[in-house]
């Protein structure tokens, strides 16, 4: 609990509950001396906030009671429409520091000089679930960054996956309808494991690359802090001379990539549906500020012409091996919001928000997005004046224009001039040199509804993604597909997806077909282009090949009992703190345990409230309470889950618990006996995050 989470009054006291009965028998709870006065929205001090104005006791309540009516009226109107997608999200403030100037490539303000600091606001989100849905849903994560640059706001509205399901914005409403709860029954919530989603996907071959990413562990990140972000589309950088360079944006977490396992995700959702938002809040509050490097892939028309795929096709990546990612700056999130609604809920990201030096391309998905975001903000926020809200208003530069009035206007210009040109000698004018100038592109062609042929290869990069994964990751993709398709009730839909998998990887299709118990392998789906077998694997596409270098920022959960070895506990705490990691205690009571030297250690969680799924590694140190802990079902789950989730397990005196969970015969190299001398070795082993060798043994 941080200082500002602590209540002001003494523990156990009722001093802030000053209550009495007035002379007429009225019950009051009121301010103490010096407390700020409670007022109506009109500033009138309220005498009684507990009782409405009545005739007699209990009496009819009077319509005259403006205090009651104003309070209820405002409450009745508190909700605004949630975002049609990305409704569940969490935001934080930060700064972006340029570490490599790009003045020759772009005139965009954040990149003009090394060391330039630009304020930012970031909102992470899931896509499909409603505002109250759990954080660990299998879903794409939004990664939206608002840069308050000196030349206006630039919004980079990306995801944690570098490709998208569809190639044209016209298909977006269908995609979203298909994944959201079915309209007749209103479920399932926050999941893609249902017929409508897979029906749509199985009829949308262009989605297959994204489906591979979606079925990978990318969609169940350990934390927002351990996922990448991508701008997805190809954008343009434009320099002062008007020269354009294509650019793709990448956010690379300094914390390393890390995801959870599907079974963990399911359990975390039950134990702590707010896991990701709590994690970000706690880390920032603790001063452990998460950081991401901003990388750019820069390329020109010649590369675009020679590349195997169309750089305007948002279902394709450009492998880092072909165009390296150059790091040009670092984003640091260092401040939580003061108010969730005012900032996180009301922040309005728009892909159309670009600044001089950044421009769009003809990517048909991006073009459609540029309409959708501005449009949706009016619906959500109810007024075109949403740009005046502090979280949305530009910070580094003045705003001068003749836009006026509208709901909740607070910033109309003073004076009589509200048009341009005028001869009053007042008011802002456009500036042809400093203003935003769209990059000049010659366009020609027939006006038709068409999809370019250069967008036609739907499988080659899906295959490339799949073959870039480690065997463990490939196994997770197969399991995810089997899980999701098993939730589809219509066998034909399952078979249609397997038919697409055949175009990606025969062995994967075989595993999924068997896992589903399909009567027979379907024929491959008709493909507009044959799958290329020659695209080489790319290490950048794997999570496990891009994990953290150390165990910093991670947490070990210690199952402890009274009498826990004092020396061992101290050594463990020291070793973890030297690594930048934390130890959390899970004890029979939240009040804590006394160690072998009689010292009290307050617990972070009670057994049952702190399951091993929320920790990166565990230690079992039951002290004198080995039997009691061994008999506790939640303690057994703690160990069984840590085992099943391939976690490192340090232990001392845990034989009874290991026996109670029948794991004696399965103790492997991921189990490490602990004493004060071996804790450092344990912490080093934890850097691997998982003991993957265990995974193939689990089903046996
Ligand atoms: Fe979108 C929100 C990311 C395609 C229409 N989108 C939204 C957010 C993110 C993305 C991160 C949440 C912003 C926030 O935190 O407030 N969207 C993407 C990416 C896409 C994408 C990376 C593909 C590359 N989106 C996309 C299309 C359309 C939309 C094709 C419509 C044609 N997206 C919206 C929206 C949302 C939105 C309806 C809902 C709430 C909002 O905008 O502010 O306009």
TrEMBL record:
Active site: 86, 159
Single GO MF descriptor: metal ion binding
Gene Ontology CC: one annotated term: cytosol
Signal peptide (UniProt feature, chain positions): none
Domain Catalase core: 39-428
Domain of life: Bacteria
Cofactor(s) of this protein: heme
Keywords: Heme, Hydrogen peroxide, Iron, Metal-binding, Oxidoreductase, Peroxidase
Swiss-Prot/TrEMBL catalytic activity: 2 H2O2 = O2 + 2 H2O
Residues involved in heme binding: 83, 123, 172, 369, 373, 380
Enzyme Commission number: 1.11.1.6
GO biological process, one term: hydrogen peroxide catabolic process
Family stated for the protein in its record: Belongs to the catalase family. HPII subfamily.
Described function: Decomposes hydrogen peroxide into water and oxygen; serves to protect cells from the toxic effects of hydrogen peroxide.
PANTHER family named in the record: CATALASE, CATALASE-B
Protein name: Catalase
Organism field: Cereibacter changlensis JA139
Highest classification ranks of the organism: Bacteria, Pseudomonadati, Pseudomonadota, Alphaproteobacteria, Rhodobacterales
């Amino acid at each position: 609990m941080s200082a500002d989470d602590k209540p002001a009054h003494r523990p156990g006291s009722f001093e802030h509950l000053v209550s009495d009965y007035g002379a007429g028998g009225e019950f009051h709870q009121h301010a103490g001396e010096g407390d700020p006065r409670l007022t109506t929205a009109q500033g009138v001090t309220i005498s009684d906030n507990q009782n409405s104005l009545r005739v007699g006791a209990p009496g009819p309540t009077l319509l005259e009671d403006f205090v009651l009516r104003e309070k209820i009226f405002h409450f009745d109107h508190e909700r605004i429409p949630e975002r049609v997608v990305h409704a569940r999200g969490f935001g934080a403030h930060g700064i972006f520091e340029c570490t490599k100037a790009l003045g020759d490539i772009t005139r965009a303000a954040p990149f003009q000089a090394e060391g330039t600091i630009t304020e930012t606001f970031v909102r992470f989100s899931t896509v499909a679930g409603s505002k109250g849905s759990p954080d660990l849903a299998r879903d794409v994560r939004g990664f939206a960054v608002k840069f308050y640059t000196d030349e206006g706001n630039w919004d980079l509205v990306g995801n944690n996956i570098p490709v998208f399901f569809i190639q044209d914005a016209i298909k977006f409403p269908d995609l979203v309808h298909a994944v959201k709860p079915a309209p007749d029954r209103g479920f399932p919530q926050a999941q893609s494991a249902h017929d409508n989603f897979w029906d749509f996907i199985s009829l949308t071959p262009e989605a297959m690359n994204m489906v591979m990413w979606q079925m990978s562990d990318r969609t169940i990140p350990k934390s927002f802090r351990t996922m990448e972000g991508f701008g997805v589309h190809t954008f343009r950088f434009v320099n002062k001379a008007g020269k354009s360079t294509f650019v793709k944006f990448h956010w690379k977490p300094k914390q390393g990539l890390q995801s959870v396992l599907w079974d963990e995700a399911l359990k975390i959702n039950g134990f702590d549906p707010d896991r990701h938002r709590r994690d970000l809040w706690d880390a920032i509050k603790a001063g452990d500020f998460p950081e991401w490097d901003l990388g750019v892939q820069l390329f020109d028309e010649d590369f675009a012409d020679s590349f195997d795929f169309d750089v305007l096709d948002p279902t394709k990546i450009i492998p880092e091996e072909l165009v390296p990612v150059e790091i040009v700056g670092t984003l640091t999130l260092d401040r939580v919001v003061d108010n969730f609604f005012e900032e996180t809920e009301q922040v309005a990201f728009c892909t159309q928000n670009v600044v001089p030096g950044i421009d769009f391309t003809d990517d048909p998905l991006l073009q459609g997005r540029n309409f959708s975001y501005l449009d949706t903000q009016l619906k959500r926020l109810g007024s075109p004046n949403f740009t005046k809200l502090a979280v949305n208003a530009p910070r580094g530069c003045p705003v001068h224009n003749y836009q006026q009035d509208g709901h909740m206007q607070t910033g109309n210009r003073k004076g009589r001039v509200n048009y341009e040109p005028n001869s009053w000698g007042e008011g802002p004018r456009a500036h042809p040199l400093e203003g935003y100038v769209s990059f000049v592109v010659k366009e020609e062609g027939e006006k038709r509804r068409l999809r370019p042929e250069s967008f036609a290869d739907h499988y080659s990069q899906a295959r490339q993604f799949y073959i870039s994964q480690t065997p463990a990751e490939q196994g997770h993709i197969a399991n995810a597909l089997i899980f999701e398709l098993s939730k589809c009730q219509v066998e034909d839909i399952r078979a249609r997806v397997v038919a697409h998998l055949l175009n990606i990887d025969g062995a994967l299709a075989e595993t999924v077909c068997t896992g589903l118990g399909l009567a027979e392998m379907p024929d491959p789906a008709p493909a507009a282009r044959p799958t290329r077998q020659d695209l080489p694997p790319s290490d950048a596409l794997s999570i496990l090949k891009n994990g953290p270098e150390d165990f910093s920022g991670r947490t070990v959960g210690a199952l402890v009992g009274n009498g826990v070895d004092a020396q061992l506990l101290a050594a463990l705490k020291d070793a973890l703190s030297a690594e930048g990691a934390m130890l959390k205690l899970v004890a029979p009571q939240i009040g804590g345990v006394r160690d072998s030297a009689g010292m009290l250690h307050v617990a972070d969680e009670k057994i049952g409230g702190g399951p091993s799924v929320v920790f990166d590694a565990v230690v079992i140190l039951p002290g004198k309470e080995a039997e009691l802990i061994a008999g506790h079902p939640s303690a057994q789950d703690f160990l069984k889950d840590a085992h099943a989730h391939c976690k490192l397990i340090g232990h001392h005196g845990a034989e009874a618990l290991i026996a109670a969970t029948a794991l004696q015969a399965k103790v492997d190299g991921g189990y490490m006996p602990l004493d004060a001398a071996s804790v450092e070795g344990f912490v080093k082993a934890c850097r691997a995050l998982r003991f993957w060798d265990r995974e193939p043994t689990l089903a046996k």
